[in-house]
Amino acid sequence: MEWHSVLILVLVLVQAALIFWLWRKVDLIESERRVEAHSNENLQRQISALQQNLKDVASLTQDAASAAHHKPFQAPAAVMAGASPYSQAMEMFKLGISVGDVAERCGISRSEAELILSLYRNSPTS
pLDDT per residue over 31-74, tens digit each? Predict the structure, then answer.
């Protein structure tokens, strides 16, 4: 075999290896693109769901604020029936009422309400 024939054979083999390598590289890039597109679709669905949840929470918050503005707080009868203002305050804190509102509704100072809240938070039964 002449050296020309050997050189041509080597060039053909190198060219085939290069084509195979490029084909694998393109296939890998295409596979990564598909995975990324799928991931982007999932993220977009999650964003849409979170946006809807945010709208729902905003609507509920607005409804609650509107209801709180129009309807005065009504403590359960068990809380109000003969209980001391401090007991009433403790029960209101359990319901999540703010310090200012508890002080106003129980007829105690804000400092007293804050002290009761601190005791409630530090108690083992809270």
Answer: 999 999 999 999 999 998 888 888 878 777 776 666 655 555 55
User: What tokens does 97 get?
Assistant: 């009422």
Assess whether 3 and 53 both reside in one domain.
yes
Q: Are residues 14 and 67 in the same domain?
A: yes
Please state the domain count of the chain.
Answer: 2
Where in the sequence is the domain holding 32, given as residue range(s)?
1-71
